[in-house]
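ok so heres the complex, two chains, lmk if somethin looks off
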Amino acid sequence: MSTLRTGQQSQEPLDLIRFQLDEFVLVKLRGAREMKGRLQGYDSHCNMVLSEAQEFIFNETDSEPIVKKTEMVFVRGDSVILVSPTTE
Amino acid sequence: MSFFGFDPSAPPSNRGQNEAYDFEETYDGLGDQLDEGDDAFNTDTFGNADNIGKDFDFGAASGIAPVKPALQPPVQTISYAQAAAQPTNDDDFMQDLWGADVPPTKSETSAPKPEKKILSLEEIEAQLTAIDRQQPQQQHMPQYPPQPYGMPGMLPPPPQFGGYMLPPAGFMPQQYGQFPGVPYPQQLQPQGLQPGQLPPQFQQPLQQAPPMQQQQQLPPPPQQVQQVQQQPPQPQQVQKVEAEPQVSQPVNIVPNVAPQSDRSADLSQFPVLGSKEAQLQAQAPVHHVQHQQHQHQQQQQQQNQYRQNDNYHRGYDRNQRRAQHQHQQPQVELTPAEEEKLSRRQEKVARIMKYSGIMNPKDKDFVTRFQLSQIVTEDPYNEDFYAQVFKVIHPKVNNAAIDHSHQNNSIAQAYLDQSGHRLGGRFKRADVALQRMQQQVQRAVTVAKERPKLTQYAREGALGKISFGSGKKPRQQLEIISKAQQRKLEAEQKGEVGGSSDKHKYSNRDIMSILENIITELMNIESESRTNSDVDNSNLWESLKVLEQSSLSGDEEAEVNPFIQCLNYHKALKILPRLFKFLSTTQVLTIVTLIISNLENLSVIKNGSYTTYESKKVPESIVKLVESYSLTFSKVLMNAVLEFKFTDITGLLFILIEHNNVSFVSTTKIGLTILTTLLSRAELILGEGSISATDLSEWSSCYDQLFQNLESRIAAIFPPHPEDVDDGSSRENYVWQFLATLSLGGKLSHQRIIVDEVRDEIFGVISRAKAIENTDLVNLPKKQNLLNNLNMYLVVMGLVADENEIKELQT
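and the predicted structre for the whole thing:
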């Protein structure tokens, strides 16, 4: 679940991620990868835990990405390029 | 005109029954007033009476008999030309119509007619007696006294005549002379088919008796009639009255002898029928020419005559065709069963018509006037008729300035003023009874005016609002409108089309922020509660923003109360059980009230009804949310409701009914679960029996309202694919649970309605259970579950179902 935070409603960039807790997010990653999944948790490094996740691996030759499905996955924050809300 | 060709405008019998025996007095030209225009349709109206049976009761109306025969013959002998010459009674008609009975004019107009006829009568009698001497069965005649045609009061002929009415005096003869018996052959045919069975007397009077009696004798088979028809050559119709009877009477005699002895002879004469029509057509133009000169009464009469001719001609044509048809198979004997059937039908028609026409228009007018006089006002005034009518129709125009209570009575007042007029106006004081009646009318009108206004019932009714009709705006049969639409309409009426501007719109991010805050506060209070048993939940309550913005079902999505919007997210649901732990009962009640009044704003309700989807299937995402609700919200609610007082629950139900379309909510799983939860808790408390009388009546009215909203749509709570709801794998089925709860709270009448509406579903479950083989061990538990769920409902009514049948529950 969400990390324990006693912080107020202060407007900070990571709030955008906080609001997406328990919702589906699209995480764009280095190495031509994307992850879709339900955001289970995150931290200030943008390390994230996604459930019901799908990994899309784009390669230069094929137009169709390779899709890997994972029940629960840890995404290390240093590879995260962007996080955005999405639908399932 | 009446059904029977009897002119309803005929003068009443107020000229005195005693005088009726005087020919001069009795013949008042009634027949001339008749409009037989539609007589040709008598058969259509009364059916083609093929068999009138043989139990004629001619004696029934014989009281005034002896004079009549003498009276009738002249009538019959009038030719068209003569009839045309008779003065019309249009003035009388108008007088009757408008209620101003001026008998003098009537007697004036009718006076000349008897004289003319007397002349012909003598001649006819002379001829008739001559004929009668040759007839052996003269003595039978007296047994068949003619019908009292001249007596207006007696006009409706007795039903023994087999259901058809004898046309009144003035009319019949003309018709008969030219179309002898045309309309009757089919009606009397059955007897004509078996002439030998007719008592000789029956036909005998024909020769002797006046024409009116011939109608009774018409039973001779159609051949006779048709024979008669061909006989009078065209010139005779133009002849003087004296000439005609000579021809027509003998003709009537022939049929009596011929048909019994030799049918084929009659048949041979039959083909000549067409000539009759030709005669009529030839004659018509004559009348037509005269018809154009509207100069005096005679011509008017002629016009009437012409019309009669024309109509008769048409009817005649048709009738003749029928007669011809019957004629072609005259020997076909009706089976006893058929005869029985026909005679029974005849009897029935006779019974129906027994009293029809017994009241003439004057009688009716008298009764109406009498009734109206009962509600007369004590102080009517003589004013312009149209002004009074206008006042009745538009009471407000005249009474705009008058206070409300007076307006209530203005209709009655105006009405009474007007009818009071009839009793002699202000110069006659109404007696006490009349005053009482007057008060009654005023009360009735007042009550009618005090009926609920349209808006009062806007929210009632199972399918929308009950609408009351007025004369100008008739009641609509059904008005189905969702709460959202309704509110929109109301807002438009108030001119608040853009009226939502004062409300804060919540963006998705706002809601997420609020939701995260709630979670944060919840976690704070949770951590606090670990160290301190007495925690302050005000921060948490603040963060819920339950009271931040009120909203109701049907509000725009973004303006709905943020807490309600939060409930569309899984994470909000997940924290609900934890959240409610820290809230007081009052706070919980507030939240539940908010939810109940916003049910249709919950996406789980709004999008959770199969009825809104074309495929009748709820989308997957909503299904997941519904599951989430069942696991969290439903359980939280159930626990919360346990704390509620009885009045709270009825209050919640009232709110639910008022702010939501119950029949829509009931088609969603969560909506139905909420209803079940509230109802079952109320019934549990009821079962404890410590409910005050006022609460009890409150509850029953609440239940009635709820039921009213559900009624006729109960079956709709079952989704179209029963497998979606209950494939037997679950141990409970929310639909049957709801029905069980609903039945439990209702009276027997409610239960009957429910059973009626869900009967198909009950049998559906039974057949589905039956479809699972007892040897199918894998699915056997499903079968049991299906039946168990069904029985949960049936048991409430003392029933129990197995896969084969529904039995009474054995105690």
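quick notes: Chain A touches chain B at residues 2, 4-7, 9, 15, 18-23, 88 (CB under 8 Å). thats all i got rn
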